[in-house]
Automatic annotation (TrEMBL):
The species this protein was found in: Candidatus Enterococcus dunnyi
InterPro entries reported for this sequence: 6-hairpin_glycosidase_sf, 6hp_glycosidase-like_sf, Gal_mutarotase_sf_dom, GH65_N, Glyco_hydro_65_C, Glyco_hydro_65_M, Glyco_hydro_65_N, Malt_Pase/Glycosyl_Hdrlase
Lineage, opening ranks: Bacteria, Bacillati, Bacillota, Bacilli, Lactobacillales
Amino-acid positions noted as binding substrate in the UniProt annotation, renumbered to this chain: 347-348, 603-604
Domain Glycoside hydrolase family 65 C-terminal per the UniProt entry, residue ranges: 701-762
Domain Glycoside hydrolase family 65 central catalytic, residue spans: 313-691
Active site: 490
GO MF assignments: carbohydrate binding; glycosyltransferase activity; hydrolase activity, hydrolyzing O-glycosyl compounds
Record keywords: Glycosyltransferase, Transferase
Protein name per the record: Glycosyl hydrolase
Domain Glycoside hydrolase family 65 N-terminal residue range list: 16-249
Family: Belongs to the glycosyl hydrolase 65 family.
GO BP field: carbohydrate metabolic process
Length: 773
């Protein structure tokens, strides 16, 4: 029986014990390897029918056909190895498997798979090791050890190379290209994507430590591989090291993009590493990992050791999925760990993942928000196609200039048997204000004036310009409304005046007007430049006329903010069985989306997300009433939901309930349910883990451009240590039940922050007792 195994003795290890091919997807995703440039599911070297062998290179989007949307292509497989032992194809689905362990070292990014395998008279001990280099973005490596446990020699054949027969669930994105052997040592394959025409160069070399090894090269369609033959003596050991690299013609670390030059670059790298061992290459990668781990480490003093493991797990994945090397790229909703959502970027980045980078790695955050600046052309394209002005950001984004890339058709409707139309790309429009919110948060946290002046202000004005054209005048009530949308609750389609959408649009417009006023006063030349580029005079006059008439759903007599115009009139059902299920699709085994649309059922935090992000707009009692109304109606079918509920309930003093949400969120990928992550990691939930700890329990928040720190630990935690960057200052925080201690270097600027209505100034060290807080 296979299961996840975590221990308090090793808070840096994710382990699966026992093998069951039905559940390969779980560890393929949660033990994925990567470095931001590339990411790879941890599929086994040998192949199984239930596996998903995915490796992706960030930003290499391609369309299989004109009527399909761009997706990250699954590139040729480099990890593959076949083992034929005494004429038998090796597989863990036959014979006897014992002492099976598959484990990921989160600290250094090494994956190890180890087991004993017995089949007839064969008895072998295998150890598979692999890593993707954190230091050398193009480099991958694996090392396999085979030990003969018997007194009889064993004949072994190994087939290992580059397999271009992999697809994206059947879609083949590559022309085959040239392939061959170089200098008798390295095999190469050079395919090209069929629509975006990106050239790839894959290189692999082998080192075999065994006696009397014979070798033979073979080629097949979209394949090139080496055959190695040798006898493993009684009680003997053999080792196979495989060194690999991936380069593309869009890489930004080399200027010569011709395939011949890229091929030579790859060979030159391999030759330069010949005298460096596998362990030395792993060590240099580990040292780069350590630089990240030393930046604002989080320590949790608690008996629930999984909490500490969870933040290590979350930070590891946030860094292997984020293309920090290239501002033309962003984070996919599944990172680089699976084909789910096709590698596309959503609002997940701005609301759930960007905050981590804002406060801990502002250089990476800058790259992520620059991607949105580069996406203005695509946003203009979408706005124009819909008859609007300004920048309407796509619900799903690929290359920044592409515009909307959301698929039109999705899963089956269980009632009609037809494909369900995906309306998000058409009418889920809060993404535009989410982008603006993320950009504003970046400026507030980092104080990056250069980015603000050169890029951010343009985004903030252009998005407000969109909302000005999107507003619809209601003459009967003399207000402007936003009709026919989808809010964060994607179980409600074609609704009017979604609270989250309307309030965030209002914020976007209000902020743009205030910004224009300030720039006219303090930086008239900058304002004139933006005015000339965007035609702001007319836009701002129009926005000023409309802003106070934007309809903002007001609370009922009971204090409930309507999620939209019709939500509170819909019928209710008991959601107990759906909320308690391991999987998140049970609701649609009983109802189709049209039926769910007529019920008070919410997929994920909607109104509550609004209360969390814009807490200054709503009094405590109103937030509490809305929490108690909407949470029982929320299925949490989205991985984005639980972290919001955990943070908001902590703000409301419901710490026991908050901690239950935290544990559920922590277990979305790490938990025992073995089918949770088949399509890939839940990227936003990993950003949510950091937010729950630092924003929720550590109490850090940006409110209306001002830093606030109001910690409150759950009962299970005795002490929390964390850190963050703010306006170029590095701040360390220690929270206990009795006090909050903040420290920073005293040679910088004082940091002003608010805590429970009091303003504090941190110069070097500051201790605040809980009575003060």
């Amino acid at each position: 029986m296979t299961k996840m195994n975590y221990t308090r003795d090793n808070l840096w290890q994710i382990e699966e014990v026992g093998f069951d091919s039905r559940y390969l997807g779980k560890t393929e995703s949660i033990m994925a390897l990567g470095n931001g440039y590339l990411g790879s599911r941890s599929a086994t070297e040998e192949r199984y029918p239930t596996e998903q062998r995915d490796t992706f290179v960030a930003g290499t989007f391609n369309k299989f056909a004109e009527n399909e949307v761009s997706e990250l292509p699954n590139v040729p497989d480099l990890w593959w190895m076949d083992f034929i032992i005494n004429g038998e194809h090796f597989s863990l689905e036959k014979g006897i498997v014992s002492h099976f362990s598959k484990r990921l070292n989160l600290k250094n990014g090494e994956l190890i798979r180890e087991f004993d395998w017995a089949f007839g008279t064969i008895e072998l001990h295998f150890i598979f090791r692999r890593f993707v280099s954190k230091k050398r973005r193009h480099y991958l490596s694996s090392f396999v050890t085979i030990e003969n446990l018997t007194e009889a020699a064993v004949n072994i054949q190994i087939r290992s190379g580059i397999d271009g027969q992999v697809t994206n669930n059947g879609s083949q994105h590559f022309y085959e290209g040239e392939k061959g052997l170089v200098d008798g040592k390295y095999i190469q394959m050079m395919p090209q994507t069929n629509e975006s025409q990106i050239d790839f160069v894959f290189t692999a070399g082998h080192r075999i430590k065994a006696e009397n090894v014979r070798e033979r090269i073979e080629m097949g369609r979209r394949q090139i591989f080496m055959n190695y033959f040798f006898d493993l003596p009684a009680k003997g050991t053999a080792a196979i090291e495989k060194r690999m690299s991936i380069y593309t013609s869009i890489d930004n670390d080399h200027s010569d993009r011709e395939v011949t030059a890229i091929r030579q670059r790859a060979i030159t790298e391999m030759e330069a590493l010949e005298d460096i061992s596998f362990d030395e290459l792993l060590q240099e990668s580990a040292e780069k990992w350590n630089e990240m781990w030393q930046k604002h480490p989080i320590e949790i003093d608690t008996e629930n050791f999984e909490d500490q493991l969870a933040i290590h797990f979350a930070k590891y994945h946030l860094h292997i999925m984020t293309p920090a090397h290239d501002e033309r790229m962003n984070i996919g909703a599944k990172g680089l760990s699976g084909e789910g959502y096709k590698g596309h970027t959503f609002w997940d980045t701005e609301v759930f993942m960007l905050p981590y980078f804002n406060f801990t790695h502002p250089d990476i955050a800058k790259s992520l928000v620059t991607y949105r600046y580069l996406g203005l052309d695509g946003a203009h394209k979408k706005a124009t196609s819909n008859g609007y002005e300004g920048a309407q950001y796509p619900w799903e984004a690929a290359n920044p200039s592409d515009g909307e890339v959301t698929p039109v058709w999705g899963a089956a409707d269980i009632v009609t048997g037809q494909s369900t139309k995906i309306w998000s790309g058409f009418i889920e429009q809060h993404i535009t204000s989410d982008v603006a919110f993320g950009v504003k948060q970046y400026i507030d946290v980092t104080g990056d004036k250069e980015f603000a002046e050169q890029k951010a202000y343009e985004i903030l004005f252009d998005t407000a310009k969109f909302w000005g054209s999107r507003l619809e005048y209601n003459a009967e009530n003399d207000y402007y409304e936003i009709k026919d949308v989808i809010g964060p609750d994607e179980y409600k389609e074609h609704i009017n005046n979604n609270a989250y959408t309307n309030y965030t649009a209002h914020w976007n417009v209000t902020y743009a007007l205030a910004l224009a006023k300030e720039l006219k006063r303090s930086q008239p030349e900058l304002f004139n430049h933006l005015n000339e580029k965007l035609g702001l005079d007319a836009v701002l006059d129009s926005l000023a006329e409309k802003v106070d008439k934007i309809f903002l759903p007001q609370p009922t007599e009971e204090g409930i903010i309507p999620q939209d115009d019709s939500y509170l009139e819909k019928k209710t059902i008991d959601l107990t069985k759906y909320k308690s299920a391991d999987s998140v699709d049970g609701l649609f085994h009983d109802y189709n989306l049209e039926q769910v649309n007529q019920m008070q059922i919410t997929k994920q935090a909607d109104v509550l997300l609004l209360l969390y992000l814009f807490e200054g707009l709503f009094p405590h009692e109103m937030k509490l009433k809305n929490f108690e109304y909407y949470e029982p109606r929320t299925t949490h079918d989205s991985s984005l939901s639980l972290s919001t509920h955990a943070i908001l309930s902590a703000d409301l003093g419901k710490l026991d309930e908050s901690y239950e949400f935290f544990k559920k969120a922590r277990n979305i990928d790490m938990g025992e349910y073995m089918k949770s992550s088949d399509d890939g990691i839940h990227a936003a939930s990993l950003g949510g883990i950091w937010q729950m700890i630092v924003f929720g329990y550590g109490g850090v928040r940006m409110i209306d451009g001002q830093l606030r720190i109001e910690p409150h630990l759950p009962k299970a935690w005795k002490r929390l240590t964390y850190g963050f960057d703010y306006h170029g200052e590095s701040i360390d925080v220690v929270v206990t039940k009795e006090s909050v201690e903040l420290t920073k270097e005293d040679n910088g600027n004082n940091v002003m922050f608010v805590s429970n209505g009091e303003t504090y100034s941190l110069k070097n060290k500051l201790l605040i007792t809980l009575e003060e807080v």
